[in-house]
Amino acid sequence: MNWLELRDFEVRQGDFRLRIPELRLSAGQMVAVLGPNGSGKSTLLSALAGLRNYRGTLLLGGEDLRTIPEKERYRRLSYLPQGGHLGLPFEVFYVVLTGRYPLLSGRRYTEADHRATARLLKLFDLEALGGRLFGELSGGERQRVLLARALNREAPVLLLDEPFNAVDLRHQHLFVRLLRSYVRRKEGLCVTVLHDLGLAVKYFDRFLLLKEGSLRADLGRSELSETLLGEVMGVEVKFVEYGGERLLSIDLSREGGRA
Question: Is residue 9 a contact partner of residue 58, using CB atoms and an 8 Å limit?
Answer without folding.
Answer: yes
